Structure formats: C-alpha cells, structure tokens
C-alpha cells in the first residue's frame, strides 16, 4: 500500500539540494546529506528540479519524485533504492526518446516504483528493470533480448511498474530482466517491436504480471527462462501478432524455462496486420510454448487466433515437458491446440484436462493426452496449414494508444512502499474471463 511521506517546500528542497551536493554517497547509492532520519520528501519536476534525472539524483530512499505534465527528452536511470517515480498524469507526462536513446527508464536499484506516465520512442526499451550491468549499459543481443556473455547472474530484487503506458519502442515496452520479486500491473504496452511486456532470466522469479493490456505488438507478453513463482494473470493480450509465449532460449542464462502459471487471461485475435514483425515471423498464435516446461495454463479465454490457440513445440535441443492445459475455453481458432515437433527434440508428459475445445493436432488430444499422464509419456506431433503472415510495419508507425486509467490520487498520495516479496496469487481464485470482454477496450480484472 502507498505510504504517506512528508511534503517539503521548494525553498527547503533547494537547501537540501545544496547540502546533498556537498556530501558523499551512501552504501545504497544515495546521498546521506543531513536530513533527519525517517524524513521523506516529495521532489517536484520541474518546480524543484529541472529534469526527471536531476530530481532522481537528489532523491533518497523513501522519497517521491512527482513529475508535472510535459514531454521530457531524457533517459532516466534510477540507482537509488526505494524511491518512487510518478507522473501527475499518465497520458500527459511523456518520456520521449525521439529514437535517439536505448531506454526511457532504467531501474537499477531495489524497491523502486515507476508509476503513472508514458514512455515512448526508444530504440530498445520503454522501462527496463534489471540487475545486469550489461543490460544497464544498453547492449542488445540478437533478435531482441540481451546476451550478457560471461557476466555472472545478478538479480535486482523488488520492483513495481504500475499504470505505465509504453508505446512504440524498438524491443520491449516493459522489460524485467535478471530481476526478482516484482509486479507489473495496470499498464499498457503497444508497438513493441519484439514484445510489449517481457520477463527474462529469473529463477525463482516471484514476479506477477497482472491486469495489463498488450496490443499491437509483435508479441503481447513473452517469458524467456522465467521460472518459479512466475504468474501471468488477468491480462488482455489481444490484437498482437502473437499473444503470449513462454520459452527457453540459449541466448539467456538459467535454462530451461519452467514453472510459470498463466491464468485468467484474455488472449484473442492475435493476427493484427498493423504491427511490428518479429524476427521469427510468428503470426496468428494465441499462446506459444517453445521449450517451456512444467507450466500451467488455467482458465484462459483463447479465441479468434487464425493460426492456433495454443501451440507446443521444442526450441533447439530443449524439449517442452510436463505442461498442463487446464479448464481453458477455446473458440474460433484455426486450430485450438496444436503440438508440433519438426526436429528430433520432442516433448513429454504434456496434458489437457477440462478444456472447452473443438480441434486439436494431432486429433483427439483431449482423450489421448488427458491429465494425469504416466511419467515421461511421449507427446505426439502433427502439422497443419498455417496462414501466411503479412509483412509488418515499423514500430514507429503503430497507432497511438487511447487514454488509459490514471493512478488513483497521483498528486496527493505519498511514495509507494514496494514489498520485498509481492503477494503471489492463488490460481484457484482466478476466474475465466467472460466472453463479453472480447469487446474492444474491455479490461480483465482479477481482484
């Protein structure tokens, strides 16, 4: 829950700025200054600091950086723990990279909250949350993501991205990489040339992605090597080229991907032509499981995906094993569920139970692969005629987003206290989204 802090006048903040400028840095990356212990302030942009970056550099743990409406041409790096960066208006506070910088916001310290603003036109990411120094440096890997080479895995612990609009970014809209114990919620992502929302390289993740909208991206949500207490619940993933993927990839560490829960999402009409084209050319797929293992897909509504509702396949030498498809509703997909293994790498013990579906490849999977299965049961394979994917458009040409909901009481609520570990959802309490949510603009709610 948000925690109210003390409000300090611009004159007092000016004095604080002079004091902080003359002091060394503390162990947590903040400046200790002479402020009494436990006193938290609100630093306003531009009233108290001319830029967001300048305000962030003055902030100490527990402070709120509150940004007035305007277009800010800067890349903001947050290296101080437990500060809140919040816009006064989600649609009118815009960090615009002008296609001249890799990232709009980089969170490189624990306990940070980013709230109620728009981030757009960056060559890589709108918001990047990471414990990787290589990723902070903005070194892209092949076909999106980050190949951090010999860098040891280091996790950023505890983060929150809430009520953020990320649009027209060259890789990912909101990107959590090598980070744990976080929440991405109430946000909107469009025009991601790779993915709208991405979680990668965490084990155990303890990450919750909930109540977001991802549309007009190459992929709505992607989880790569994101394992253990990884929850994607109550999101609207509609009108992308591919709705959702969970996969294993040698480009990132912590192989294989396993143990995610994908529940209560609306995943529909993912064959939108006016979208960026991802390197692998995926098209018309609701859910893709590419070398992912021991994931549970529970009570999702998967509809109107022209190629397939849900696909299971292998990636390179990594098989998809033990995935459970439970109590989902499929409708008007090219194929509701399709399993295909074009190479020698095949899956085992994948199963279905309680789903409303009509077509599978191979046929009769609901009976022949019904849960539970004997250990190491080989998954059958088949093929089907997939529609040809149309060419995509530049991510810079994706349609502008509609007005999105505001953070409640953005200008009167104090800094947000981000928990060390988020409350993890109970899949049993997550309902199937109603069919009425297929209407344009409807939002999925899980609480």
From TrEMBL:
The keyword Transmembrane does not apply. InterPro entries: NosD_dom, PbH1, Pectin_lyas_fold, Pectin_lyase_fold/virulence, SCF-Subunits/Alg-Epimerases. Residues 1-21 form the signal peptide. It comes from the Bacteria. Residues 167-337 form the Periplasmic copper-binding protein NosD beta helix domain. Keywords: Repeat, Signal. This is Periplasmic copper-binding protein NosD beta helix domain-containing protein.
């Amino acid at each position: 829950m948000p925690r109210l802090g003390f409000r300090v006048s611009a004159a007092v903040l000016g004095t604080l700025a002079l004091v902080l400028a003359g002091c060394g840095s503390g162990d947590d990356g903040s400046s200790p200054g002479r402020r009494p212990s436990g006193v938290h302030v609100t630093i306003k942009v531009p009233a108290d600091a001319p830029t967001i970056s300048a305000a962030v550099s003055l902030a100490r743990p527990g402070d709120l950086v509150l940004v007035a409406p305007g277009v800010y041409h800067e890349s903001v790096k947050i290296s101080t723990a437990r500060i809140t960066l919040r816009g006064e208006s989600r649609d009118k506070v815009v960090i615009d990279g002008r296609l001249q910088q890799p990232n709009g916001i980089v969170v490189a310290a624990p306990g940070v909250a980013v709230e109620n603003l728009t981030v757009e036109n960056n060559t890589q990411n709108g918001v990047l949350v990471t414990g990787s120094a290589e990723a902070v440096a903005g070194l892209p890997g092949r076909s999106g993501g980050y190949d951090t080479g010999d860098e040891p895995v280091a996790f950023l612990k505890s983060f929150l991205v809430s009520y953020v609009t990320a649009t027209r970014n060259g890789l990912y809209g909101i990107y959590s990489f090598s980070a744990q114990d976080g929440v991405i919620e109430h946000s909107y992502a469009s025009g991601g040339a790779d993915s709208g929302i991405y979680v990668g390289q965490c084990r155990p993740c303890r990450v919750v992605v909930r109540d977001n909208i991802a549309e007009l991206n190459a992929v709505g949500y992607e989880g790569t090597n994101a394992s253990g207490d990884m929850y994607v619940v109550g999101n609207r993933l509609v009108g992308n080229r591919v709705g959702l993927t969970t996969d294993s990839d040698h480009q990132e560490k912590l192989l294989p991907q396993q143990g995610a829960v994908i529940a209560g999402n609306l995943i529909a009409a993912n064959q939108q032509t006016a979208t960026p084209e991802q390197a692998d050319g995926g098209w018309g797929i609701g859910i893709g499981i590419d070398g992912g293992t021991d994931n549970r897909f529970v009570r999702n509504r998967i509809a109107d995906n022209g190629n397939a509702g849900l696909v299971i396949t292998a990636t390179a030498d990594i098989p998809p094993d033990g995935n459970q498809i439970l109590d989902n509703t499929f409708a008007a997909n090219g194929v509701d569920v399709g399993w295909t293994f074009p190479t020698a790498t095949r899956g085992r013990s994948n199963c279905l139970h309680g789903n409303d579906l009509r077509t599978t490849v191979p046929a009769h999977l609901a009976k022949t692969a019904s849960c539970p299965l004997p250990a190491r049961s080989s998954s059958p394979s088949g093929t089907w005629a997939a529609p040809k994917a149309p060419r995509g458009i530049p991510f810079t040409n994706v349609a502008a987003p509609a007005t999105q909901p505001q953070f409640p009481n953005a200008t009167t609520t104090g800094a947000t206290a981000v928990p060390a570990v988020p409350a993890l959802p109970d899949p049993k309490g997550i309902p199937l989204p109603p069919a009425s949510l297929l209407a344009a603009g409807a939002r999925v709610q899980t609480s």
